């Protein structure tokens, strides 16, 4: 008997238990019928140093589930993961409702009064030497007759791109619609394409403004209740022109191109004049076919890009020449 006990102790020393000593009493074969009774007495099917070591496959046959041995720290980790999962599920379900609460503003019952001269006062504070003599859109006469010199290259000026620009301005227009020009005071709103507008029901409030400006390919069709149906101007650049003007815009919507590089003028000229399409020189392939009325196209005056970069964003205006062919998205878009 002493030899048998000694043999079992040697086997136990060669094959350590799968659980550390401090938690060994918490380990059991789940699904077995017996548990430890009195101290020092082991029920059949349980695991202890004094029990014979059955082969692993035999123990799996006896137990309907594998050996359960979880450290106290493991339970804390599982509980933390479960809590994170619950929070993520709650966040995904309630996200839309919380967007409405955070960004919703009431729709005015009547059209609010327009404070004449208020925007000009704010612009003077922001820009300092702000002048209303600068036209919003580039005009053909400034480059055909006078040839106004520009101190900066695109996107802050037209230096080096005058010939290209001249051809584009010859087939486009620069006028502001009479319906807007005749207004003594204009109420304007800029509508982006963020998720915060979803389920906001702000379409009616947006349509009440005199001038509604949209950016890039912000969708309208199918979302009129949230974003409105009125579009006075849509600002875009070639890489963001992946929208159908006849579906997303109104018949009198002005499509205002913001030029960041000389290749942008090449692209719009090839589209409007049906010339050989330009495929290189863009961070994203622009449309090769774009059904648009040339008389609805406008070219934004780079003066306003200069003011925004210098006065609002404090960006350096003097940039290396190679920036002209920088193929990264000028607005940070990746798709």
UniProtKB/TrEMBL annotation:
Please write the reaction equations for the catalytic activity of this protein: a beta-D-galactosyl-(1->4)-N-acetyl-beta-D-glucosaminyl derivative + CMP-N-acetyl-beta-neuraminate = an N-acetyl-alpha-neuraminyl-(2->3)-beta-D-galactosyl-(1->4)-N-acetyl-beta-D-glucosaminyl derivative + CMP + H(+); a ganglioside GT1c (d18:1(4E)) + CMP-N-acetyl-beta-neuraminate = a ganglioside GQ1c (d18:1(4E)) + CMP + H(+); a beta-D-galactosyl-(1->3)-N-acetyl-beta-D-galactosaminyl derivative + CMP-N-acetyl-beta-neuraminate = an N-acetyl-alpha-neuraminyl-(2->3)-beta-D-galactosyl-(1->3)-N-acetyl-beta-D-galactosaminyl derivative + CMP + H(+); a neolactoside nLc4Cer + CMP-N-acetyl-beta-neuraminate = a neolactoside IV(3)-alpha-NeuAc-nLc4Cer + CMP + H(+)
A single cellular component GO annotation? Golgi cisterna membrane
Q: In which pathway does it act?
A: Protein modification; protein glycosylation
Kindly report, in one word, the top-level EC class recorded for this enzyme.
transferase
Keyword annotations of the record: Disulfide bond, Glycoprotein, Glycosyltransferase, Golgi apparatus, Lipid metabolism, Membrane, Signal-anchor, Transferase, Transmembrane, Transmembrane helix
Which Gene Ontology molecular function entries are recorded, alphabetically?
A: beta-D-galactosyl-(1->3)-N-acetyl-beta-D-galactosaminide alpha-2,3- sialyltransferase; beta-galactoside (CMP) alpha-2,3-sialyltransferase activity; N-acetyllactosaminide alpha-2,3-sialyltransferase activity
Respond yes or no to whether keyword Metal-binding is given for this record.
no
Task: Show which residues constitute the signal peptide.
Answer: none
What Enzyme Commission number(s) apply to this enzyme? 2.4.3.2, 2.4.3.4, 2.4.3.6
Q: Note the InterPro entries from the entry.
A: Glyco_trans_29 (IPR001675), Glycosyltransferase_29 (IPR051142), GT29-like_sf (IPR038578)
Stretches with biased composition (Basic and acidic residues): 1-12
* Keyword hit for Transferase: yes
Similarity section: Belongs to the glycosyltransferase 29 family.
Entry protein name? CMP-N-acetylneuraminate-beta-galactosamide-alpha-2,3-sialyltransferase 4
Give the organism's phylogenetic lineage.
Answer: Eukaryota, Metazoa, Chordata, Craniata, Vertebrata
Primary gene name: ST3GAL4
